[in-house]
Amino acid sequence: MTKQLDLLDIQGNILRAYGRFGYPVARYVFLNVRNTAKGREFVGEITKKVTTSVEWGDGPGKIKQPDRTVNIAFTYQGLKDLGVPISSLVGFSPEFASGMKGRKDILGDDGPSSPEHWDPIWRGNRETREKDVHIFISLNALAGQGLDWLTVAEKNRDDAYAWLLDEINKTEGGVVLLDGHLGDDDANLNYQDVRVVLDNNGVPTPKEHFGYTDGISDPVFEGVPYDERRVKGRGKQMPGGTWAPLATGEFLLGHVDEAKEYPPAPEPILLSRNGTYMIYRKLHENVATFDRYLEEQGSKFPGGKALLAAKFVGRWPDTGVPLVKAPDAASNAKFGAQLLSLNAALNAAQKKGDKESVKSNEQAIDDILSDFTYDDDMSGAKCPFSSHIRRINPRASLEMMNEEGDKPGSFKVSKDAFDTPGALANRRRLLRRGLPYGEVKDRTRDDGNHGIVIMMVNADINRQFEFVQQQWVNYGNDFKAGNDKEIILGNHSMDDNFPSKAVIEADPDSDQPPYILSKIPRLVVTRGGDYFFIPSMTALRMIAQGVIDPT
Amino acid sequence: MSNIAGKAYAMNVITPIRPYTTWVNKFIFWIAVKIPGTLKGLITLSLIHYARWVIIGKDQFPHLDPKQPKEELNYTYMMFFSNFNGSWDQYVDSFTFAIPGGLDLFWKWNIRYSKSVPLTPFHDYIRYNQIETIHYYNAYPLAASNDVKSAKTVKSSLIKFEQDTRNVSGDNFLKLYNALLRGLQHDMGDMYPTPIVSMSAHQVERRQKWHAANLPEGGAGPTGGTAPKEAHGHSAKKGK
Lengths: 551, 240
Hints:
- The structure holds two protein chains of two kinds.
- Chain A has helices spanning 12-15, 36-47, 76-81, 86-89, 94-102, 104-107, 120-124, 149-170, 269-272, 287-298, 305-313, 329-352, 355-370, 388-392, 462-473, 537-545; strands at residues 25-33, 68-74, 135-141, 175-177, 181-182, 188-189, 192-195, 197-198, 204-205, 236-237, 243-244, 276-285, 400-401, 412-413, 431-438, 450-458, 502-504, 515-517, 524-534.
- Chain A is α+β, with helices and mostly antiparallel strands.
- In chain A, helix 2 packs antiparallel against helix 16 (537-545), helix 10 packs across helix 11 (305-313) and helix 12 (329-352) runs antiparallel to helix 13.
- Among the domains of chain B are: 4-131, Alpha-Beta Plaits; 145-183.
- In chain B, strands 1, 2, 3, 4 and 5 form a five-stranded antiparallel sheet that branches.
- Chains A and B meet through strand 13 and helix 15 of A and helix 2, helix 3, helix 6 and helix 7 of B.
């Protein structure tokens, strides 16, 4: 990697998924600006504490890892009410201006996912001036090292929140905290809390509430020093199955993107460079429906329930190992054992402070979980075309063909058809941030307080997030699957006359039939969200000082 | 006016070429047709129904009536015509990401062609030279080209299956039936209305439907007007 990013100018939540760096707990807070001058003053005060992307550690150019992180972002109305001039505002993208609610028909937020069912804060947003969400602030808390890891993290979070409330109070009503986040038993909260899911012994896990390992394939792009070794399976697939980091401009404004140009961005350049767009989405998980459906279909599916659960997502729930590498239970068990010993070695190395050993073990784990292509599974016999990971990030698998004389029901790589193997995927990538929220207290009920808050980061909401959501999650033409949707996230039909289904492909060389997953219920429901702009530190200071002027 | 009908989008682009370089373009087209590999990328992009490039000489434009004024054209023109599924952005972007070299080859000799990468000048070039579709009929508004291809495969496979299984035993029937399903596993996608192409297209369509349902036809009473049959087949609209 040759590109050097200005890490001190880029907010830390863009380059880091904090959960992976030891922050298992976070609180998200949303604010309404009532007085522009006081609002700007408030932004100035927060900016002093904002966490940047600078490297953590002891070496030169590094700082000590903070106990808590602070990051801030704005909606379109927020920027407007903070006095960003109209000549700059018109440079933001139309979908950012219209907001998530205005884009519901594109996003497929219908039926139980439609805005009238969202949490009150999101229902009220963009209806009246006083209820508009203007500012987003995220506080992530570092865990302790010992058995009291969670208590320490919660204290770090509470300290950060107390500080924030104090700053809000200082504005004397110039900035107002918005309520309307639903918590346990529909409690109306002033914030959205998120936390890693704990196992039965209270040990943190990388899982979400359905039981899948989450957040493995986060894109790697040029210029992020702590991601250099993570490029395999996360960058862009190159000829010969090698990997290269994606262009920075896919995720940060003011940098060249995969089309070799600067992504559309507002002026002046100081407002947009090193900033980006964030999609905040609260997704409720219907765990009872999921369990029931998996049970019902798993009893019929020839490979059994565990394999079917893996087929939904493309990874084994217990290990996170991709189906492409471990197409059956035996191979999953083999990789699972390898992962166990690698993780044990990694823990030991971390305790000893043996950096080389940490690196090599991390690398070995990463190779198992992330380093794969679909080149040997072009027909979907291992990882179904409608599974989560194949739909969200198809890698090079859309460069596919079936020629006269090929086996029916099979695809192969359409070699050299495209300029680069990942041509249709490289500009649809999303950085994924966020953590699960709530706890599943009763797995036989859908209506508890449990789900995931996902924050996706990209340079172009329409080209990246909305495209993936509309064309790949809620539609299937690019995957030769007609209107079939992605199994987990798809907005499956609520109409019994037109039930959703998906095909779990069979190996074209076998004598097996494909399995038809019929009457897929709605497993995930949208509970709210909006589009935000995460400015650079420079832009934050300019917003606070009220000196943005594109002329 | 709409470039969209059902799941399909019609794109017409007409761009000028200097008459003395026209032969280069013709030669390139000839090569492309002779060596099928050159169009592999285009064929792999399954959202495309077809794409056609035609050279129109400056004297070849239709002159239908002596009363029609004669045009003085300085250039030869290249007409590009394509139907595809999805949005304009999706199509043009897929083209640029997947086959930038091919595009440059075909358009290279066109006046003020920007090259296909970077993207924005290419977008501007196509937009500027695009001719909006005034009338667009789609016989199968619910079908993408993949759906049509799949439907044909399903039909022929079923006919063959019926013939092959007339006199087979139960076990053999099951074997052949499994093989039939396996062979069709990528041809069984549902066919429902398209995801909306854009918010503006969506709003236009909603207004048209509102007019169709609310405005009486041919002087019928306020409730007597019959709504014209929906052109876009939304009777199967889901999730409402």
